Structure formats: structure tokens, C-alpha cells
Amino acid sequence: MSDIQLWTLVFIGGSFAVYLYIAWRSRVKETAGFYVAGQGIPTVANGAAVAADWMSAASFISMAGLIAFLGSDGSIYLMGWTGGYVLLALLIAPYLRKWGKFTVPEFVGDRYSETVRTVAAVAAIIISFTYVVGQMRGGGIVFSRFLGLDVTGGVIVAAVIIGLYAVLGGMKGITWTQVAQYTVLIVAYLIPAVAVAQQMTGIPVPQVSFGQILDELNAISLELGLAQFTDAFAARPQIDVFLVTMSLMIGTAGLPHVIVRFYTTKSVRGARYSAFWALFFIALLYTTAPAVGAFTKLNLLQGVNGVSADALPSWVNNWAATGLVTVGDGVTTINSVSNSPTSGADLIVNNDILVLASPEIAGLPAPIVGLVAAGGLAAAMSTAAGLLLVISSSFSHDLYFRRVKRDSTDAQRLLAGRIAMGLAVLISIYAGINPPAFVAQVVAFAFGLAAASFFPVIVLGIFWKRCNSAGAAAGMITGMVFTATYMIYTLPVFGTEANPHILDISPEGIGTIGAIVNFIVTIAVSKMTAPPRDEIAEMVENIRYPSERRTVTAGAATDAS
Amino acid sequence: MTEVTPEKETRGGEPPPPGSAPPDNGWRKEYWSRNLRLMVILLAIWFIVSFGFGVLLIEPLNEIVIAGFPLGFWFAQQGSIYVFVILILVYAKMMDRLDSQFGVDEPETEGAAK
Q1: Is A257 helix (H, G, I), strand (E, B) or coil?
Q2: Which end of chain B is less packed: N or C, by CB atoms within 10 Å?
Q3: In angstroms, how far is CA A530 from the centroid of its own chain?
């Protein structure tokens, strides 16, 4: 066993032991604890849990690699996956917390109608499930590189552990475990980043110091046949950068597994501060990611530029075994580098390995490599657990309880939720081992659909009392159908021909247009049909104020209390 | 906190359109419009920094280079994220003030640790 494998085992084993211990300590028996942790999670802890929940295998493992090759246009992910929190904090979180139930479909159901609720529950399950598959796959990659397991074994181990503590602990166990996972993943991300920054520039703050190397990186990129790192719109046209960023932002604000986390705070005020802490913790990683991308890319390019194929650095061989790094046939010296397998470049490097391989590329010691592996797993597991919970609650609470057995007891619902979770784990093991070729596209799908369905309906539900059930149903359905149609039109996902993008709009960006369509249809149909009942207007009125008015002046107080 | 559900709360038949609230509920309109004003200002900053500086004006801003960073590139990959964090903090702080001014702050809120 190599040093790297040993240290990986130590870190992964140690962190898993902590997660399972926490899940065991905070196991719960009643529904409220299972779904919203009895609404007793401190703000900072909830923020860290939201951050861990949100930052998936994609953020930890893939994003810096994507940015390394996208360059300036990588900002679509950086801004898109953080800016959504501003929308969430200002437009959604405090109000849904005041209204205070268990699930997003439940809000939609109370505000509009049971039909809209069922549509929302099914959409929440589909969106969450797509995500879970990606996480299982991410866990599988880590195990297969560092522990010498095959991907199948890796996926099964990851899925069993995630399933075990999600089923046992519910939201309470998940929240505290996620706090531990956030700690592991951020430490694992920052330590190598700080070390590399110190090594290359002498300034141990990656956010500041990567400015020092941008000129050098631009020069060597050109030499090796890549676009300059700081050139805007090298990878995507301007209009598409705009639309994709917006789509990811409003998709983030509409994703059920993120919104539901704000129900776990103690108060409306707690929900606002939770959003702040969540974004603060996310920003620690997101502002570091472009630095990691830039440093690793420069290191990588300098390490291989003009080097003969039999004298390449050792990380190339280590990763070649996973098939994620390949040297072109008959290549003697490396004169071009790419991330695209069809580019015909001398050295082809998959985006997904850049973060995991960055300590090796920079020649950092084995314990750090092991720590990064544990961090990648923490990111994948924490997100998967949060998603499993949404699947479980949407199924048991919004479908089973409402549609199948209205007189079900607490215990029955809890059981239904756990069975749904177990089933989701089994199916995602299968899908993680045999991933559909289009996982990446399907994730874009999930964001676009969340943007075009949930976001407009929730926001209008809070800010416009006149918005009614007919409008919301029509808006959600047209938004989703429009978005899905364009995605199917432009992506070769369902065996259909991929058509060229209309007006440079990519399928990742269409969610923005879908959301606008949803807004327009919802408003138009609501205007044309009867206003909602008085109780609904009353309900909307009430979620706008954090609590009953205290006695301030006699006149106002008598009416308000 | 004390959960207030719409059913438990009896508020003498207030008509739904916001334009015709009874006069003794004036504080509600006032509170809500100040909340909305704050929201619009913060969202305008959100849009200008991210979509304005980071997307629409990125190329002209890239002509200015500070500490190695072309300015537009810096806004797109660093600056906008810092601004987002600050915007949420400002919102939470301003809403604390607004809530207590109008006496709708929650009595048993936890210390928000900052």
C-alpha cells in the first residue's frame, strides 16, 4: 500500500467514524425532528449545514477544473451558484420560514391548490434524484482512485453509509453531520490551496495571490493552444454567459433541498442570518476555486510543456489508470494540452481530476492528498443526504399522506419516508454504477427546470396576493414545458437530433427565458381568473411580518393582537 | 417562537387588496413598503455588480488592471461574491432594525452570533 493510499484510508475512515457517531447521537423518533430538526438548529450551524448541503461533488471536485479550462467564463458557475443566495435571502427564505411547515410542495399546496402541490412534489423528487446520482458517482471516483476499489465497489460503500445515517438520523442527524462535513471539506480545500499559493507567489492568500500569475498563465496557455485565462467570452458568447448565470441563480433559489433548510431555523430572523452564514461559508470555497483553477493549470502546463512523453511527472501515470488523463498515441513531446477528448491534443486532462490531483501536481505530501480525498467524499455525502431527505419528505408527506392515506399516523409516515429513502439509495447505486451518458446535461436540466417552475410561483405567491391557483398551475406547466422542449431540441439526450442553439442561447441558459415565460403566464392567467379566497390573502399577509405586533400604541395593539 | 397560524389569528376581515387596508393597519403598509424599498435597492446593487460589472461591462473594465487582476475579470470571479455576502448581511441587519422599530421582532430569538 502506498503512502497516499494509507493516508487516504486514515482520513476517510476517521471522518466517517465521526459522521456515524453524530448520526447515532442525534437519531430521532418524531416527524418534526426528522424533517425540520424540531426547528432548533443554531444559525451559524444551520449556515454551515446549508453550505455543505449545497456544495456537492460538483463544487468540490469539478468546479475548479471547469474554471481552469473555461477561464474567465467560469464566472457563470462562481456567480450563478452564489448570487442565488441573495435572491433566496431577500425574496424567499424569511417568508417561508414564517409560514413554517415541512416541505416546499406544502407551501405551494397551501398557497394555491392540491393539484399544484402534487405537480411540485413530483418535480422536487425528479430534481433531487438527478442530483443524488451525480453524488454517488463522485464518491465512486474518489474511492476508485485512492483506495484501489473499482467504481462499483466505491459507489456501493458510499451509498450504504449515506443511506444509513440519512435513514437513521433524519434532518437532525443530517444537519449536525453536515456541520462536521463542512468542516472537513473546507479544511481539505483550503490547506492545499494556501500551500500552493505560498509555494508559487509567497502570499498565502489564494484569493489575492492568483493575480500575480495571471500574465504567466495567459502566456503559457497561448503557447499550448488554449485560450487566454482572463479573456472574457472565449468559451461562451456574452448573451449566453448572462443567461446561464441568471438561470443558475434563480435555479439555486428554487431548488427544494436548499429552500427546505431555512425551515430548520428557530425564527424568521434566524432564517435571514442562516442565509448570510451559508453564503459566507460557501464564499470561502467559491472565492478559492478560481485561484485553485489558475494555480493548478499553471503548474500542470509548466510541468508538461515540451516534456518528452516518457519523462512526464508521476501524477500523469497515477491518474492514467483511471482513464481520466491520456497521452495521445505516438506523442513524443507534449506541445498541446486540452480537456476535450476529441481535440487530438498531445495530453488530455479531464476537468474532474484537477482538484483531486492538485496536491500531487504541486508535489505536496501524501497526508494532504488523503485529506483532499476525504473532503471530496464529505462534499458528495452531505449533498446526497440532504437530497435523500427531500425525496423522502416529498414522497411521504406530499404524496403518500395527501394522496394515499390521509389518516396515516406519524409512525406510518416516518416509515413511508424511510422506505422512499431506501428505494432512492438502491436506484441511485444502480444509476451511479451505470451512469446515463448525459449526467452533466441532466444536472443542467434540473437547474433550468427549478428556475422555470418553482422560483416564479414561490416569489409571486409571497409578493402578489392576487396570484391564484389557475395562474400558478398554468405558469408552472408552460415554464417547464417551454424549458424542457428547448433542452430536448438542443441536446442529443433522448436519442433526438441536437439542433443548433437559437440566438446563441445554450440549454443551460434557457431556464432564464422559461422563468420569464412562467412569470408572464402566471400573471396573465391570474388576472383573467377570479382572485384567490380571502383566507389565502390573509395567509400571504401574515407571512410578511415576522411576529405579532407588540403593544406599542393602544390603537394599533388592540387590532393586531 | 410562538407559531402563529392564519386560523388562530382573528383579524377583523381585512380586505385583500393592499390599497384599501383599514387606517389602523397603516403600520403594516408602512412596514411592507419599507421592506420592499430596501429589497429593491439591494437587488439593484446585486444586479449592477454581477451582471453589470461581471458580464455586460467586463471587457471595458478589463482594461484596468489592479494587483494583476483585470478589473472585470476580478468582479466576475471574486468581487461579485464578496458583494453578495455583504448584501445579505446588510439586509439581515436592516431588517432587525425595521422589525424592532415596528415592534414585530420575535421575542425569543436566539442571538444571531454576530
Answers
A1: helix
A2: C
A3: 38
Find cell 449592477 and name the residue: B48
The answer to whether residue A369 is domain-embedded is: yes
The type of residue at A190 is: L
| Beta carbons within 8 Å of B78's beta carbon, 6+ residues apart | A207, A287, A290, B69
Q: B3 and chain A: CB distance < 8 Å anywhere?
A: yes
Can you give the C-alpha Rg of chain B in angstroms?
Answer: 21
Query: CA-CA distance, A178 to A197, in Å (whole number)?
Result: 28
**What pLDDT score was predicted for residue A2?**
72
Interface with B, mutate which of A208, A273, A459 (most B CBs under 10 A):
A273
- Residue A413 in grid coordinates: 409516515
Is A337 in a helix, a strand, or coil? strand
Domain assignment of residue A20, given as a range: 3-302+362-543
- Most A CBs within 10 Å: which of B69, B84, B102, B108, as the mutation test of the A interface? B84
Among the three residues A289, A323, A350, which one is the final residue of a domain in this structure?
A350
Residue A557 maps to a domain: no
pLDDT band of residue B13 (cuts 50, 70, 90) is very low
* Same-domain check for residues A233 and A323: no
Helix H or strand E encompassing B46: helix B26-47
CATH classification at residue A461: 1.20.1730.10
Residues 7-46 of B with CB under 8 A from A: 9, 11-18, 24-25, 27-28, 31-32, 35, 39, 42-43, 46
CB contact B62 to A (< 8 Å): yes
Evaluate whether residue A553 is within a structural domain: no
Domain count of the fold of chain A:
2
Same domain, A130 and A28: yes
Closest CA in chain B for residue A39? B1
Model confidence over A125-158: pLDDT tens digits? 877 887 777 777 777 777 776 666 776 777 787 7
Same domain, A292 and A323: no
| Residue among B77, B106, B109 with most chain A CBs within 10 A, to mutate | B77
Q: Which residue is closest to B15 within chain A, CA to CA?
A: A534
The verdict on A466 and A340 lying in the same domain is no
B58 CB within 8 Å of a chain A CB? yes
Contact (CB, 8 A) for A190 and A55: no
CA–CA distances in Å: residue A232 to residues A98, A208, A221, B29: 42, 20, 15, 45
Q: What whole-number distance in Å separates Cα of residue A452 and Cα of residue A477?
A: 9
Residues of B in contact with A79 (CB under 8 A): 50, 54, 76, 80-81
User: Is residue A516, in this structure, part of any structural domain at all?
Assistant: yes
What is this model's ipTM?
Answer: 0.84
According to DSSP, residue A113 is labeled -
For the stretch A341-387, pLDDT in tens is 677 777 787 777 777 777 777 777 778 888 888 888 888 877 887 78
Q: Are residues A438 and A456 in the same domain?
A: yes
Cβ distance B55 to A268 less than 8 Å, yes or no, reads no
